[in-house]
Hints:
2 domains
Amino acid sequence: MKKSLFVLSVLLCNLCAFGEKQFPPLVTQKGVEISVSAVFQAIHSDVLLHILRSYETTKRDSRVKVRPQDAFLHSEALFQSMTLLAGTRELFPRAEKGREAPYAFKDTWICDKNFSGVHGITVVHSIWDAQENDFPGYVALRKGDPDILLVVLRGTQGELFQPAGGYLGPSWMTNLSVRKEPISPEIFGFKGKIHHGFLQKVLSYRINLIGSIHKLLVNELKGKTENLIVVVVGHSQGAAVAQITFVDLIHNAGPILFGKDFTNQQNRFYLYVLSAPKVAGDKTTANSMHAIGIRENMIRHNVMQDPVPNAGVDKIFDGFGEYYPTGYLSLEDSIDVVNKVVRYEVESEEMTPEATLKEIKERQVALKAINATIEKSSFLYLLSKKQDDSLPKKILAKTAAQALMIEAFAQMKKMQSQGFGNPFWYIAAWHYGDRCNPYGSFAFDPRLPSSDLKKGLEKGRTHEQGL
């Protein structure tokens, strides 16, 4: 570890560190009023496109007759820098096999090639190797006022050629390695416990990530960082490792970039994660991450019923592993996201045969009943968290909420038996994926997360306080 920190210092040593310059925090809360940094709100739609692009850069090409683990559909993006121009929709402008985004970029972004690492935990006595080289993300720069350095981290990348269709492949093994790994203060500046699989992945790529940051800052900004904000983003597994990378960069790179007395009270580092698994192994670790990152500079954005961040009203994973969330919660109703997915299916050219339209119309009728059940469940769950209610009332409300969620899943299963979809369709939608896009079945869809982060933060506060 000491060697890694030395390499980090050498890579960044010729950057120009400046004194304190105050930027606004990502989240500002004054009394009941809550708001989001205008700087971040302006780039939010582009951030979602970058998260989509992070998946696309490592998409495999099954048509190539080589080892499938080496057959990348957009290999150019892995091995060369690209500039994404404002007003265009090209995700890979220099690639032979281009791919368009669903909407145009607002700003011009200079993207370095993907940095490499290792993911997966080797299974002892297994017949397969559950560990492989990985390209977990990339760094992009927007020059402006301020300059924005974006660290983009990709989510789980299961592949059909891997064991169990990817569910026992390296990327999923990272997710499933849930034991708590003790960490010493010399790593991230605090003593705590972190999800083992996610921590090991971060440690495998952190030096390559620093190299990529160094390259962009030296080549494009001549090492000048006085006007720089670093934004770390990710979805799903990418959101998990982003939380760890966020505190890593603040503790180890922050003083080199912004001066030896740097703390994130200067609001130089922002964290924005979608559908984020929890990584902090205890409350002390979560509090330490807040102390280093400053909670006001951290947003986790998810749908209420998404099981991955454990925000569902039925609390399926209550107590499992006892991991704790970080940052401010920006919450969306599952009903709103599902209705978006249905609308995109209706609008899609690929989903307009008469049979499909008939299916969608019938599904919409069934959706109304399911949505009504979920709404009741959500209402009862919030009642169960009201601080002024007695314990028996809380238990009754939570039990009723769980019963209604079971009923909702039964209604979904009925839809499946009638050929109208299945529960996975809902879970995918709640996880910001839908089948009606040109990126593959249930890929991350940047059109699904709400752009109204202020409303989401207000709803998240209500959810957490049980008001």
